[in-house]
Amino acid sequence: MYLTFTQSTLRSFTQNIFKAMGCSQEHAILAADVLLKSDLRGIDSHGVARLSGYVRLWEKQRINATPNIKIVHETATTATVDGDAGLGLVVAPFAMKVAIEKAEKYGSGWVSVKNSNHFGIAGYHALMAVEKDMIGFAMTNASPLVAPTFANERMLGTNPMCYAFPAGKYPPVIVDMATSAAANGKLEIAQRTGKNVPEGWIQNADGEYTTDPHALKTGGALLPLGSDREHGSHKGFGLSATVDILSGVLSGANYGPWVPPFVAFMEPAANAPGEGIGHFVGAMRVDGFRPVKDFKTNLDNWIERFKASETINDSQKVIIPGEPEREAEAERTTNGIPLVLAVVDDLNAVAEKFGIEKLVADA
Amino acid sequence: MYLTFTQSTLRSFTQNIFKAMGCSQEHAILAADVLLKSDLRGIDSHGVARLSGYVRLWEKQRINATPNIKIVHETATTATVDGDAGLGLVVAPFAMKVAIEKAEKYGSGWVSVKNSNHFGIAGYHALMAVEKDMIGFAMTNASPLVAPTFANERMLGTNPMCYAFPAGKYPPVIVDMATSAAANGKLEIAQRTGKNVPEGWIQNADGEYTTDPHALKTGGALLPLGSDREHGSHKGFGLSATVDILSGVLSGANYGPWVPPFVAFMEPAANAPGEGIGHFVGAMRVDGFRPVKDFKTNLDNWIERFKASETINDSQKVIIPGEPEREAEAERTTNGIPLVLAVVDDLNAVAEKFGIEKLVADA
């Protein structure tokens, strides 16, 4: 059961919730923009469906609605930002702006972030660089859900990495991926619809493959990309470790099993070694390597050649990274954003608490 | 059947071959060092076993033994290097030195490379940065062997990416991985030993899973990390695409199916859009983000915590990325490097051609 909303309705509603939390007008607009971008791009797990989660963390005083976000360490092209426990939705764009400014001056800019919270979709931040004809990088660590190869313990988040490249006549190429075999959002969909998941996504409390999507609630864990050692799960683990080290260890944020949980009902770990969760973002000017026009001409050619790959089935073409999200964005910008009823109810419960006008389907 | 050699015997032999090709003393020493590092670290597929392959490419005039390697474009922290068709084994260290010098001055340095050849193991280059208390990055595109998700055509190399981090009391954390489900070297071992490979490594000419390790010779392809769409092969494809774009499209090298083959009996593609193969390397100063001591203390703690993960079987601990290679290096430095007889014969055939003293097992 879905209700459908225009982008502008969901956007004002979301802004109002953030303002009710005490966010500045500027931060409310930005945070809503990050969430809406996710819904528009079809990544329902990271959009307004998470809004009530942010509110609950704010209620527990784990999110600071009026953070003093600042650079605490820097060189010409590197910096560490302290997010002051603010919304990752505003902290990460701050960090990306710093990276872009450094890249404008020196060719590249790299910012590690500590003391932040969940930053929405990585693609939002990486795309900020693409708009300036730069290559964008964004990653974040996250609450531990994933067991390393051979482990029977949740040690890592689904730790996404994103790389975004500006093309010429085509939309940007955007690789934006969890480093686990399946994103947690896919598991949640299976839980909601009562379907089993494929072998290779999760293990149960004994460390065995299971198809039960609820196994995470009884001591199970998500598996790294590659699923098992034979198929390269040590590589998924290595990628996730890379995200964790660049985001957490490099910034002074938490890492590994100490990354604070997104859900407010779970308390952060005692004796945590760092501050909040960590991100890592970067930007490199394309014209730091070759003329933008030459790069874009070749990337357009790359896209055309890959789209024209010989296929196994005539009906299924090769998909350029970022293409499905772009198609969803075009479709939902026109036709509105569908939300499952449970999400709408959840959002309206928040609205009621804050005394804000409720959502009414209008698309 | 193995013969075992001391490191110094294999090193002088390899230097002599490169000198016989016309390489300078300096280049011969460096190129041999890169190959030996691979053999020492247990990555047999990328060590001296490849030496005769480099010689054959040189005979075909596709490798230039006396390249004029130079920067052709740069900003304060970015550069593009033209390898002048030299050995990747010397071109990539040149590029890494440029990246490190830029990082020393400005915090980070990033170098895209065109007109190069196979660069050995990515870890060698990334470790150059680690020695300077920097984080090292190295990747390269390679001859097309891998089919993107849904494709029945080899469009990408096994395109490795490497991230290397300096620790304190522990050895560096080194994530060095092919972005395919299995590296080509593993397939070659199965071919040699007549064993089947697991489902999920390769597809046959019809695009179906096969366990026949010879399927690549009859129109098959390696699969991206993730193996199939359900298990995230689009992510492995996305990572491989990232390596291809950073190494090939950004530098002006070839990319995708146009990357020239390593084997001399296959001709490079006609109408290739770029020059040679491409690499991408980078270095970031740890103290560009926080004091080196703090980072290393936390990374040591990270390593300890991950090594202490609860495990599924008592007998199999979690492996820190880079650990198996470091253990191999310690063992082989002491006990020598084993080479299969076929490789020794192949090397001695090259020695005979050049009139150089042959290899004799001495460890």
From TrEMBL, chains A, B:
<dbReference type="InterPro" id="IPR036111">
    <property type="entry name" value="Mal/L-sulfo/L-lacto_DH-like_sf"/>
</dbReference>
<dbReference type="InterPro" id="IPR003767">
    <property type="entry name" value="Malate/L-lactate_DH-like"/>
</dbReference>
<dbReference type="InterPro" id="IPR043143">
    <property type="entry name" value="Mal/L-sulf/L-lact_DH-like_NADP"/>
</dbReference>
<dbReference type="GO" id="GO:0016491">
    <property type="term" value="F:oxidoreductase activity"/>
</dbReference>
<dbReference type="Pfam" id="PF02615">
    <property type="entry name" value="Ldh_2"/>
</dbReference>
<protein>
    <submittedName>
        <fullName>Ldh family oxidoreductase</fullName>
    </submittedName>
</protein>
<comment type="similarity">
    <text>Belongs to the LDH2/MDH2 oxidoreductase family.</text>
</comment>
<dbReference type="InterPro" id="IPR043144">
    <property type="entry name" value="Mal/L-sulf/L-lact_DH-like_ah"/>
</dbReference>
<keyword id="KW-0560">Oxidoreductase</keyword>
